[in-house]
């Protein structure tokens, strides 16, 4: 009969020695994954700092108003012209009309090659205002010359006022144009029908240039007061040398300007485009 083992079975949960029993120190090694947690936290802080910086920059940019840039165009093919000094208010005062042809124009009134290529003056200078008369003296009335004149656009020096089918357009006219075309681009300047200190444009056959529904056209003088006012324009100083702006005598603050190459009466504004479109030179008649 086999001998029975009298030894007791081992305790399934033996007593584990404590630190104070072994004399060993606690395990100070980091828990697995702790370094990755630190790196993730540092990355999160960096992202938050970048977001705060971006928001600050956007707020600063939002506080800075962009510069306005507006340009009302009179036609899609309007050329760029030199930027003239811009007046805040409509020009006033009288401007002489008996001046000779502007420098750079040929004797027949057509623009020189330099003007044809460059358009308006590179650095336009405002016309000098007339000197004030002495106290008690009346300012002399500037009488326009009776010679025929052509009206040249400052920013289109190869184009002139041209009468066609009773309306006035800004057309190309030169020495190669027909005599009839040159004649239709020439007008006789006479003292204003409604104000002798201003001017009227006569065609010499009883017709005058006048505005009707704010467009420039030619009509026969009917003797009415309205016609005389519609046909009278007062020259005002322009921002371009040797050029004038033409203000309506019965619609103060409205000046003749070209828009889509048609002549019309528009309210004054201080934009550079309006300043150029409403500036004209009175040169020797083409016809």
Topology:
Blueprint lengths: L18 H4 L11 H29 L50 H6 L29 E6 L5 E6 L2 E6 L6 H6 L2 E5 L7 E4 L4 E6 L2 E6 L4 H6 L2 E5 L6 E5 L5 E6 L2 E6 L4 H6 L2 E5 L3
Antiparallel strand pairs: 1-4, 1-12, 2-3, 4-5, 6-7, 8-9, 10-11
List keywords for this structure.
four-stranded antiparallel beta sheet, two-stranded antiparallel ribbon, 6 helices, elongated, single chain
Explain this structure to me?
- β2 and β3 (167-172) form a beta hairpin.
- The protein has helices spanning 19-22, 34-62, 113-118, 179-184, 225-230, 272-277; strands at 148-153, 159-164, 167-172, 187-191, 199-202, 207-212, 215-220, 233-237, 244-248, 254-259, 262-267, 280-284.
- The chain is elongated, with a radius of gyration of 42 Å.
- 20% of the residues lie in helices and 23% in strands.
- The strands form 5 sheets. The protein has a 4-stranded antiparallel β-sheet, with no helix packed on it.
- The model is unreliable at 64-83 and 98-142 (pLDDT under 50).
- The protein contains 6 helices and 12 strands.
- The chain is of the alpha+beta class.
> N-to-C SSE series?
HHHEEEHEEEEHEEEEHE
Summing up helix and strand content along with how strands pair, one would put the structural category as alpha+beta
Mean pLDDT: 73
Number of contiguous helices: 6
Low-pLDDT windows of residues: 64-83, 98-142
Largest sheet: 4 strands, antiparallel
Order of strands across the widest beta sheet?
Answer: 5-4-1-12
Helical percentage: 10-25%
Strand content: 15-25%
Cα distance, first to last residue? 154 Å
Radius of gyration: 42 Å
In one word, what is the shape? elongated
Number of strands: 12
């Amino acid at each position: 009969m086999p001998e029975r083992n009298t030894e007791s079975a081992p305790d399934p949960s033996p007593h584990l020695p404590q630190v104070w029993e072994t004399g060993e120190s606690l395990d100070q090694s980091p828990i697995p994954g702790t370094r990755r947690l630190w790196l993730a936290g540092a990355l999160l802080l960096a992202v938050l700092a970048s977001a705060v910086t971006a928001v600050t920059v956007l707020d600063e940019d939002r506080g800075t108003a962009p510069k306005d840039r507006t340009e009302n165009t009179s036609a899609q093919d309007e050329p760029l012209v030199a930027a003239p000094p811009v007046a805040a208010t409509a020009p006033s005062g009288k401007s002489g009309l008996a001046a000779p042809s502007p420098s750079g124009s040929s004797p027949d009134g057509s623009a020189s090659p330099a003007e044809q290529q460059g358009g308006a003056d590179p650095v336009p200078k405002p016309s000098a205002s007339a000197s004030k008369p002495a106290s008690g003296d009346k300012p002399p009335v500037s009488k326009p010359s009776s010679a025929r004149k052509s009206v040249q656009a400052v920013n289109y020096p190869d184009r002139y006022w041209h009468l066609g089918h009773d309306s006035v357009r800004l057309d190309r006219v030169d020495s190669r144009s027909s005599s009839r075309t040159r004649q239709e681009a020439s007008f006789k300047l006479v003292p204003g029908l409604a104000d002798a200190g201003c001017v009227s444009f006569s065609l010499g056959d009883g017709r005058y240039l006048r505005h009707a529904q704010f467009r420039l056209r030619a009509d026969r003088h009917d003797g009415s007061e309205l016609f005389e006012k519609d046909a009278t324009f007062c020259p005002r100083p322009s921002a371009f040398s040797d050029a004038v702006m033409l203000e309506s005598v019965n619609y103060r603050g409205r000046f003749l300007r070209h828009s889509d190459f048609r002549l019309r009466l528009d309210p004054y504004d201080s934009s550079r485009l309006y300043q150029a479109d409403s500036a004209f030179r009175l040169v020797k008649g083409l016809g």
